[in-house]
Design goal:
Layout (H helix, E strand, L loop, with lengths): L11 E3 L5 E3 L3 H22 L5 H19 L18 H17 L13 H25 L6 H22 L10
Antiparallel strand pairs: 1-2
């Protein structure tokens, strides 16, 4: 079996449920950023050895596949998307909010700016967070252009970046050096 199809050699890529778009399209940029975040979460998962973080990170990676499918779908075929399989739902957003609240309750956030890099795992989560923020910006761009973007997907990306910030602080461990202006 070959991995290459040559169909993208003309600068286009296929959409879920048919159709092709330019690889420079904002949708491709958005789900490309999501793909990068999945990889950064994989790095964080590989580096993580603190209580249950690996299972949660794997779950978030799988949920980002749902986000990617939602973004990569032919706009005319969105009715074919299945909740929590290829369509982001309000329930997914609510679960992120629950996780954020529980984590902050257990590990209050620092009151100063945080410089990433306290541990390899927390640094990987900060990288994933910044990639999710970029995916969110590209998704907002799509929405502002009038393209089909689920409001739940926008909320999901926003909450996910918040959760990744909270998890990064948790994996960073003890108090961090505050950043100082000079």
């Amino acid at each position: 079996m070959r991995i290459y199809t040559k169909t993208g050699d003309d600068g286009t890529t296929g959409l879920l449920y048919g159709g092709r778009i330019s690889k420079a399209d904002p949708a491709v940029e958005a789900y490309g950023c999501v793909d990068e975040a999945v990889a950064a979460l994989g790095l964080a998962r590989a580096l993580s050895d603190r209580g249950g973080a690996g299972a949660l990170l794997l779950r978030l990676q799988r949920e980002l596949f749902v986000v990617g499918a939602d973004l990569a779908t032919n706009p005319d075929e969105r009715s074919k998307l299945r909740p929590e399989v290829s369509l982001v739902t309000a329930k997914m957003v609510e679960e992120l909010e629950r996780l954020i609240d529980a984590s902050v309750k257990e590990h209050p956030l620092p009151q100063e700016f945080v410089v990433p890099g306290a541990t390899p795992a927390s640094a990987a989560l900060d990288l994933a967070r910044s990639l999710v923020r970029r995916a969110e910006r590209r998704t907002v761009e799509m929405h502002e252009r009038g393209e089909a973007v689920s409001p739940d997907l926008l909320r999901y990306l926003n909450r996910l970046s918040d959760l990744l910030f909270v998890l990064a602080r948790r994996l960073a461990g003890g108090p961090e050096e505050p950043s100082r202006s000079r």
